[in-house]
Amino acid sequence: MIFGIGTDIIEVERIGRRLEKSDALKQKLYTVREQQYCEKGKVTVYQCYAARFAAKEAFFKALGTGYRYGMAFHEIEVLNDELGKPYVNPLGKVKRFLEENKIQSIHLSISHVKETAVAMVVMEK
Ligand SMILES: CC(C)(COP(=O)(O)OP(=O)(O)OC[C@H]1O[C@@H](n2cnc3c(N)ncnc32)[C@H](O)[C@@H]1OP(=O)(O)O)[C@@H](O)C(=O)NCCC(=O)NCCS
């Protein structure tokens, strides 16, 4: 059964400007593994970060809570499998919240071009 869906779109340049100014923000928003994946991209590095930001926003929309209950952005880790397919690795309070709400699976799709990044999340209960 579908628990919720969420989508988000973001301007790559906006994320790029904010991350260039503040390394602390990067550490706050992204896990080490996300940073390692995105920093490999060189040209697409900010597209990658923007896509992960959109994925985290889409995740909260699918959850239906928005930013509540102390759940933080770096507790939603976006990883890629061996074929490149992205998936969500929930951590900390987010993981607990999903368990409490009996969410069984999370589907994530990401797309990015020079200007914008989009993400969509579907959660099943
Ligand atoms: C996966 C694929 C459909 C992506 O489409 P695209 O238009 O190039 O790129 P988009 O910006 O729309 O999407 C990129 C995102 O697709 C997602 N993606 C990559 N592989 C995927 C897969 N196997 N399944 C689902 N999603 C995938 C990733 O999230 C990626 O973004 P990320 O690296 O930041 O996580 C396409 O690259 C493909 O089919 N690749 C496999 C074959 C291949 O590698 N060909 C290249 C040489 S011919």
Provide structural commentary.
The protein has 5 helices and 5 strands; from the N terminus they run βααααββαββ. With 125 residues, it is of the alpha+beta class. The protein has a single domain (2-124), classed as Ribosomal Protein L22, Chain A. The chain has a 3-stranded antiparallel β-sheet. A two-stranded antiparallel ribbon has the order 2-3. The structure holds coenzyme A. Residues 48, 51, 80, 83-86, 110-112 line the site of coenzyme A.
Count of folded domains: 1
**How much beta, percentage-wise?**
25-35%
What low-confidence regions span 5 or more consecutive residues with pLDDT below 50?
none
Please tell me the CATH architecture by its name. Answer: Alpha-Beta Complex
Q: Which sheet architecture does the biggest sheet show?
A: 3 strands, antiparallel
How many distinct beta strands? Answer: 5
Mean pLDDT: 94
Give the end-to-end Cα distance, rounded to a whole number of Å.
Answer: 5 Å
Helix content: 40-55%
What would the principal axes of the Cα set say about the shape? globular
Query: What structural class do you assign from the helix and strand content?
Result: alpha+beta
- How many helices does DSSP assign? 5
The helix-strand sequence is EHHHHEEHEE
**Order of strands across the widest beta sheet?**
1-5-4
Radius of gyration, Cα only, in angstroms?
Answer: 14 Å
The CATH superfamily name is 4'-phosphopantetheinyl transferase domain
Give a list of the ligands: coenzyme A
